[in-house]
Model the fold of this input.
Amino acid sequence: MNFEIKYKDARGRLGVLKTPHGNIRTPALMPVIHPGKQTIDVSLYGAEVVITNAYLIYKNEDLRKIAEKEGVHKLINFSGPIVTDSGSFQLSLYGDVEVTNQEIVQFQEKIGTDIGTSLDIPTPPSVKKERAERELEVTLQRAEEALEVREELMLNSVVQGSTYPDLRSKCADILGKMDFQVHPIGAVVPLMESYRYEELVEVVMASVSHLPDDRPRHLMGAGHPMIFALAVAMGCDLFDSAAYILYAEDDRLLMPNGTLKLENLYEMPCSCEVCTSHTPEELRQMEKSERVELLARHNLNVSFAEMRRIRQSIIDGNLWELVEQRCRAHPFLLEALRSLKNFTTDLEKYDPPYKKSAFFYSGPESLNRPEVYRHWKRLERIPTKKRVLLLPRSRKPYSEYLYDIPQSYYRIIHDQSIQTLEPQSIETQLDDMQVAVVDVPFGVIPLELDQIYPLAQNESPQDYDEDSIKMVNNLLKNYLREFEEIIVSDKVLKTFRLDKTFQIDEDHLFSLPLKIMVDDHERIKRIADYQFGAGAGSGLFTGDIKIVKSRKTGKIRHVYDGEELIATLRASDGVFVLAREGARRLHSFLPYPKNRVVVNEDAEPFAREGKSIFAKFVINCDINIHAKDEVLIVNEQDQLLAFGKSILNGKEIHDFKTGQAVKTRKGGF
Ligand code: GUN
Ligand code: ZN
Done:
């Protein structure tokens, strides 16, 4: 396989795809080149790969002769990787094409295409299921036939199945087991043309969640920059744009948040060279062909800029923020964004838990982000106490700013048999009490966790919106069930309307100057539980525990047992980085295969030397590993060899045969 992932965010991947004519950095935009008609040199705009149509070349005798003699690269004058389509799109437009599957696959091989396509059937949306099934059978047969007739050619195999998620998934399962290099997702143009973005989400998610992770996916016919970010966040890697020229021919300008008609423009809306050197009126007065070329250049500028922005946001870890901005450009895109909540469990597995950027709340849709869901799953790893004290938000990290919260507290009557805590005893009872802050978007944040990503690294408006209040109220209903006694500040009670949900003990209103301190030993254990799993804190931090703090910030930096370093708390995101002793302890505490990446015999010496782990040497791993997790590298006998930071998640480590899986920190065991 020839694809590698370097960075991840959401379900998006920043990667490299190798082809005979060079590497493609993904996510990538492939401008559609019209053979014989092209006037613009798209490489000037940043195109590293282009797509052209083998069927149009095949049908035109002149073009065909040149392509057969000199190759497609000469024909369209592009020296980088070239993808070709098969005529399926013409099939979907005209109902018929004058070529067989076998002929067009062999033709693509002959003209030196880098990635060719079989003659799939693009079944339109919303057809009868019988038709979708029947046509899918043909698509699958043709895919198989393409494999039989190709020699060296890298092959696309298009996922079809109309708007039936089960057919899309079935198709992806079958094609994924066959030897294809790229998987386009087909027949989505009609969905995009009619703004049916919610169905687009359904189709894409049903496909990508059943495709192997080690192959790039091409969202066929998606050329509007408005949907690039959303599609990348769902796991699409390649896009093709005929839009840049088609919109130009129609006097329309592509923008990252929609389309503009030249006839309506008083000002040019963009800073590209076309827009800064022409007024709308000048463009309108021009000869049509000259105008089309200039608008096409603007369209290319804007489309490639958006793709660069997306690649940067994957590295920065703020792709979700970009998606949320873009999806506010059109109500139907907003609808699509909202529908991502149906896929939270899947998205959570791919989304890295630790990022360089803070989580920015941009509206109720942010409540559906995987980070929020993950927090609630991980809260279950924290051992419950008998009592809970709920505080309102302060500045972050909360534990450092609690002194300026004026408080009065209520007791919630939860279990009549529990003896009431006397007001003055709150401070003496803190040992037995979980102190937590209630805030949006994460709901409940136990104070020990107030420095770990993203619980400290997030921003939301001061005034909570209605959706957030409802969500937190719901979450609290569930969370509070675990406790025998609940003490809640009046502010939390009123803000999150707990008096509507619970019975309040009106006689026990009390007011106290709070001096809540988080115990350092408690803190390190709870962080480890949250990061590695229930009980990990006790497994890691036993013995003569010494905590060393930063002299500058006063925050915990290192944890030792006597002289032996166990782990270091990374300042940027409050997450533990293991030292050798920490890895040893985690290994003996966590049962196989938890947190493990198992390598074969060949890789064992390299792992012990501290060399990074390539995916092809991995024979097994914990499927629940997330990208950026601290992982244990072991052999088949579960002997600890090394430890490091995972680049991929468990499923990806399993699927990939090329590239790095784990950046090893230390070997030497
Ligand atoms: N171009 C746009 N949609 C499709 C599709 O479904 N299949 C192929 N081969 N090309 C396309
Ligand atoms: Zn412009």
Summary: The mean pLDDT is 94. The longest strand covers residues 12-19. The chain has four domains: 3-350, 382-512, 519-577, 591-669. The domain at 519-577 is CATH 3.10.450.90 (Nuclear Transport Factor 2; Chain: A,).
